[in-house]
Design a protein that fits this description.
The structure is a single chain. By secondary structure, the protein is an alpha+beta fold. It folds into 3 domains: about 1-140, Adenine-n6-DNA-methyltransferase TaqI, Chain A, domain 2 (Alpha-Beta Complex), CATH 3.90.220; about 145-190 and about 350-405, Helix Hairpins, CATH 1.10.287; about 195-350, DNA methylase specificity domains (Adenine-n6-DNA-methyltransferase TaqI, Chain A, domain 2, Alpha-Beta Complex), CATH 3.90.220.20. Helix content is about 35%, strand content about 20%. It contains 8 helices and 20 strands. It has helices at about 105-110, 130-135, 140-185, 310-315, 320-325, 340-345, 355-395, 400-405, and strands at about 20, 25-30, 45-50, 50-55, 60-70, 80-90, 90-95, 135-140, 195, 205, 210-215, 220, 235, 240, 265, 270-275, 285, 290-295, 295-300, 345-350. The strands form 7 sheets. The protein has a 6-stranded mixed sheet. Strand 5 (about 60-70) and strand 6 (about 80-90) form a beta hairpin. The longest helix has about 45 residues, at about 140-185.
Length: about 400
């Protein structure tokens, strides 16, 4: 195999199929550049780029039925199908047919070739048209191509249906997890507990034993000096504060670590940390280890005894997010900031310490159970996708005699 050409081996059923260069079936050429301002959410003609459908525009570059290959982008090498009138951007390769073939068979044969392996330039992956054109694939007679296409349409459709059901199940599990946490930190886990009106709109009725307090009664803003030997921690809108330093590949692409660690600020277990610019999205977290955080974060240290993790869970609820948004300042979402002077006035509910511990223990146990189900379901989806990929490969390379399955 070279960087510009490769061939797919054939199985027993496909042993007599000739290996043909793609350019003898269709010549792939880059699409045409289009200004991003011309692409809208709705419009007359679809626009296809390196990652598939980008939006719509009022002009078109192609008319007919084509196989597209993503030339650049995160999904470099992906396969799409386009028909009718559409615009193909410069980030997509369009296969112009040179002879008769079944379009779906052709696209799936190219998908099996794993075109992403031929991309160059790690910062902006890209595939040259020449590479795709020189690729060699086994080409069965057109009638067999059609049988392969119909077989794959039926069988992958079944697999895709199962994947969709499992994906919906995961979404329901995540909703259940969020609802469970919300109920636990706003209503408690004792269904027989007497309730009272909190006097705070976003909290509503809370257990009678719980106190309603301002953030200022629980925390004070602090600015600790940095110890360069400590890890740099991150705050996520989904997972709170990390308990260690993330690897470069796991860190947000927009966030780069400064080589001078003295520019950071120190944090200690029990602190509450939040990202001022993303607080309205839930970027809060309780600190569990000594470390460093960005100087752009707000760090609040507890002034009394309670569980900061309880406050983190409370601030991640939807109703809290709406209240935090009200306390934030800015003319647009991406400019919204939650300053400490405003955040300190936010009211929260807090149960007695022993009840906080029981609630957190219940949340941990139920979250572990739900996350376990999510992990198992995600693994089953991965297996289905592997089966789907293997099925496509077997069909287009002749390892399966699709005539028997027709």
């Amino acid at each position: 195999m070279t960087r510009t050409a490769a061939s797919l081996a054939t199985g027993p059923f496909g042993q007599n199929w000739p290996s043909v260069a793609v350019k003898h079936l269709a010549v792939f050429q880059s699409g045409s550049a289009i200004d991003g301002e011309e692409i809208e959410d709705f419009g007359t003609y679809p626009v296809y780029g390196g990652n598939g459908l980008r939006g719509y525009t009022e002009r078109f570059t192609h008319k007919g039925e084509f196989v597209l290959v993503g030339r650049q982008g995160a999904l470099c090498g992906n396969i799409n199908y386009a028909e009718g009138r559409f615009w193909a951007s410069e980030h997509a390769l369009v296969g112009h047919p040179r002879r008769m073939f079944d379009r779906q068979w052709f696209g799936e044969a190219l998908r099996t070739a794993n075109l992403g392996q031929f991309s160059t330039a790690a910062a902006q992956p890209g595939i040259a048209a020449e590479v795709v054109n020189n690729l060699r694939i086994p080409v069965p007679p057109v009638e067999i191509q059609r049988l392969i296409a119909r077989f794959l349409e039926r069988e992958t459709g079944r697999i895709d249906g199962l994947i969709e059901k499992k994906t919906r199940f995961i979404a329901l599990l995540k909703e259940k997890r969020a609802a469970m946490i919300t109920h636990a930190v706003t209503k408690g886990i004792d269904p027989d507990a007497p309730m009272k009106d909190s006097g705070v709109d976003w909290l509503g009725r809370v257990p009678a034993r719980w106190d309603v307090l301002r953030i200022a009664a629980l925390f004070r803003e602090v600015s600790r000096p940095a110890d360069p030997a400590l890890p740099v921690l991150s705050v996520s809108i989904h997972d709170g504060v990390t308990d260690g330093e993330l690897a470069d590949e796991d860190r947000d692409r927009k966030v780069a670590l400064s080589e001078d660690r003295t520019k950071y600020q120190g944090v200690a277990p029990g602190d509450l940390v939040y990202n001022m610019m993303r607080a309205w999205q839930g970027a809060f977290g309780a600190v569990t280890v000594k470390g460093l955080v960005s100087p752009a974060y707000v760090v609040a240290a507890p002034v009394t005894t309670f569980r900061t993790k309880f406050i983190e869970h409370l601030l991640h609820t939807k109703s809290a997010a709406e209240e935090i948004r009200r306390f934030s300042r800015g003319i647009a979402d991406f400019r919204m900031r939650l300053y400490w002077d405003h955040f300190r006035a936010l009211k929260v509910c807090l149960p007695p310490l022993d009840e906080q511990d029981r609630i957190l223990s219940e949340i941990d146990a139920e979250t572990a159970r739900i996350d376990g189900l999510i992990t198992l379901t995600e693994r089953s989806i991965d297996l289905l996708r592997e089966k789907r990929s293997a099925l496509i490969t077997a069909a287009v390379t002749g390892k399966i005699d699709v005539r028997a399955a027709a």
